[in-house]
Design a protein that fits this description.
Elements lengths: L30 H14 L10 H5 L1 H8 L3 H15 L4 H16 L10 H11 L3 H9 L6 E2 L1 H8 L6 H13 L4 E2 L9 E2 L2 H13 L3 H16 L10 H8 L2 H14 L5 H14 L4 H11 L9 H11 L6 H18 L2 H17 L3 H17 L3 H17 L3 H8 L4 H6 L2 H17 L3 H14 L8 H13 L3 H16 L9 H15 L4 H12 L3 H9 L15 H11 L4 H8 L3 H15 L4 H14 L1
Antiparallel strand pairs: 1-3, 2-3
Helix pairs in contact: 1-5, 4-6, 7-9, 8-9, 8-11, 11-13, 13-14, 14-15, 14-16, 15-16, 16-17, 16-18, 17-18, 18-19, 18-20, 19-20, 20-21, 20-23, 23-24, 23-25, 24-25, 25-26, 25-27, 26-27, 26-28, 30-32, 30-33, 31-32
GO molecular function: DNA binding
Pfam family, one: TPR_12
Protein name: HTH luxR-type domain-containing protein
């Protein structure tokens, strides 16, 4: 039973109990005391009545562990040190203690005092550890509630602790139930600790003056990987995936360098990397704020160019081409002054796109070529391929199809092996655009479908291959399909769920295809098709887009569960999560989980959009 018996006093048993072990069978007539024990344990963990354990569950620690998760050490402390002595008192005093504990447990969780029951339990557990185990227990707090052994070694190993000794201590912490293995579909091992344990560990780090060394070790470990961005234009797929599963550590490192080491220029690269990982997720807004904040840190940072370029990627609503041009010119100058060649490649490519947006095609071509020449000099085949794909799209817009095909011919097998999903999807889209412009419709469709199969549903660039398939449909005379796809992508762009910065030549092709397709439909059919298309979720749109044929668009109803629909209706009425929790008699955290699942199913991002969806479907019903 983990900690049971370590330093506990067992001869302090309550009247009416048999000796030899903690929480033996109680006197069945003493229902008040049994009730008091249950109240005390429940109050200690701030649980509601539905989680209050029975006396038998308190007696059997394993059952209680199932209910209360990672709190076995605290439960055993209550059982061995609190309960036996308190059972000698009257049940009124015990209830008063339970209520007092409950108030502290449910009070301000941001600043737990040392008299908090959980801190008392952790103090007791901490006192039973060896010096090595205490060091590991406190240092893993910098990793948050979930972590892997590689990260533990990175923040714990020093001149006094080897890799082997750190892993041994980690195993001991797991054996004593202070950390638990997280269930995972992969073979990789992950551990989990409670938020209380994290807060406690941080407090111990500060007491032992180990807070800064532990965080600096985390930053140094992440920088050992991120530093590659100072030598290459873009990270490979494997490198991106390595950071993607450690994005929480990256966020911790970024906040630490911002708050405590403002003169550390590594902050800018780490922030740009974190923002890029958020770019194709539902955390785009946080990424934008992160870049904007980092730009205020130091105007002379050698990595300022990367922040400016990433800021451009996030500023999809910025429709001022001159402002974009000025910002990218500043990025080039910053990279040139810092002599950061990899940053220069990224900045030159972005500057070329900015010039194309203001129709200065000569300047755009000059900077595209300069970025590719620099990538060649750096012997960076991967970055050269990425630059050539952007250049090819520029050439397609100018009607130079053969030159575009020549540009992408530099793509090697290494690119396919190392590219991340977004880069591979973009490459297939470029190939599809070249085939489409050259009149090879079947090949264009194949590349566009392949691109769409790689993009995730919430990627802001997902409209491009779908619009490519709309042009394929128009070329085949599938008017209804073309109109539906273009209406759906326009809805995504209008609602801010997809990129709004579209090349002029691409918009012109789409407008022409839409006009020609609408001319083939009667007014009622066209209106109905567009209305139905606008109601598609991103995933429904993808499913429809990859189909072939020109069937009438009848989206499948979104499968909300009964409870999810209940929550959605209350959200539409304007109720807060707390009000919904009280109305439906469920936990506030459960309401939050339901809303996240609803957003994912419907492909929406706000309560306003959910209210509109409920209104539309109620009217339809």
């Amino acid at each position: 039973m983990g900690w049971a018996g370590d330093g506990a006093t067992r001869d302090d048993t309550a009247p009416g109990r048999r000796g030899g072990g903690w929480l033996q069978e109680a006197d069945r007539s003493d229902s008040s005391n049994r009730r008091a024990v249950s109240l005390l344990v429940a109050a200690l963990f701030g649980r509601g009545p539905e989680f209050w354990p029975s006396y038998e569950e308190v007696r059997h620690g394993a059952r209680l562990c199932e209910i209360l998760g990672n709190h076995l050490p605290a439960i055993e402390l209550v059982a061995t040190q609190i309960m036996p002595s308190r059972l000698r008192e009257t049940h009124e005093e015990l209830l008063a203690l339970a209520n007092a504990v409950g108030r502290r447990s449910r009070g301000d969780r941001g600043g737990k005092s040392r008299t908090d029951p959980m801190n008392l339990a952790l103090d007791w557990c901490y006192s039973k550890l060896s010096h090595r185990e205490r060091t590991v227990m406190s240092r893993i707090a910098v990793l948050g509630t979930e972590f892997d052994p590689e990260a533990v070694v990175a923040v714990c190993v020093d001149r006094n602790l080897s890799d082997e000794s750190v892993l041994d201590a980690l195993n001991m912490l797991e054996h004593r139930a202070l950390i638990r293995r997280r269930q995972s579909d992969s073979e990789k091992i992950y551990f989990r600790q409670s938020e209380a344990a994290v807060a406690y560990g941080i407090e111990r780090l500060r007491e032992n003056q180990d807070y800064f060394p532990a965080h600096r070790a985390l930053v140094a470990w992440l920088w050992s990987r991120a530093e590659r961005l100072t030598h290459v234009c873009m990270l490979s797929r494997a490198e991106n995936e390595w950071f993607a599963v450690r994005v929480n550590y990256l966020a911790i490192a970024v906040e630490f360098t911002w708050n405590h080491t403002r003169d550390d220029h590594r902050h800018d690269i780490l922030a740009a990397l974190l923002a890029s990982l958020w770019l194709h997720t539902d955390r785009q807004h946080e990424g934008r704020q992160l870049i904007q904040r980092a730009l205020t840190r130091d105007a002379r940072s050698p990595y300022r160019s990367d922040l400016l370029v990433h800021g451009l990627w996030f500023s999809e609503v910025d429709d001022n081409p001159q402002r974009i041009l000025q910002t990218m010119y500043e990025a080039v100058q910053s990279a040139r002054e810092a002599r950061q060649d990899s940053s220069m490649v990224r900045a030159l490519n972005s500057l070329a796109n900015a010039y194309a947006a203001v129709h200065d095609y000569e300047a755009a071509q000059r900077y595209f070529v300069e970025s590719m020449d620099l990538a060649r000099r750096l012997d960076d085949e991967f970055s050269l391929a990425v630059c050539s794909h952007m250049y090819a799209m520029f050439l397609v817009g100018l009607g130079k199809f053969q030159e575009a095909a020549d540009a992408v011919s530099v793509t090697t097998e290494r690119f396919e092996a190392e590219a991340n999903p977004f880069q591979r999807a973009s490459y297939r889209y470029v190939l599809g655009a070249i085939e489409l412009a050259s009149g090879r419709i079947d090949a264009a469709e194949s590349f566009m479908v392949s691109s769409l199969g790689i993009f995730v549903a919430n990627d802001p660039s997902i409209c491009y291959p779908i619009e490519g398939l709309a042009l394929v449909a128009a070329a085949r005379g599938q008017a209804r399909r073309c109109v539906a796809l273009l209406a759906a992508t326009a809805q995504l762009r209008d609602t801010g769920r997809a990129s709004t910065r579209v090349p002029e030549w691409w918009s012109r092709n789409l407008d022409e295809a839409r006009a020609a397709s609408l001319a083939q439909l009667d007014e009622a059919d066209a209106w109905d098709t567009e209305e139905r298309a606008r109601g598609l979720t991103p995933q429904q749109l993808i499913d429809y887009a990859v189909e072939r044929g020109d069937r009438s668009l009848v989206p499948e109803p979104t499968a909300l569960t009964y409870r999810e629909h209940e929550v959605a209706v209350q959200v539409a009425k304007g109720l807060s999560n707390r009000q919904i929790s009280a109305y439906l008699h469920i936990a506030e955290s459960t309401v939050s989980s339901h809303i996240k699942r609803i957003y994912a199913k419907l492909g929406i991002r706000s309560r306003t959009q959910l209210a509109a969806w409920i209104a539309a479907h109620t009217k339809a019903s």
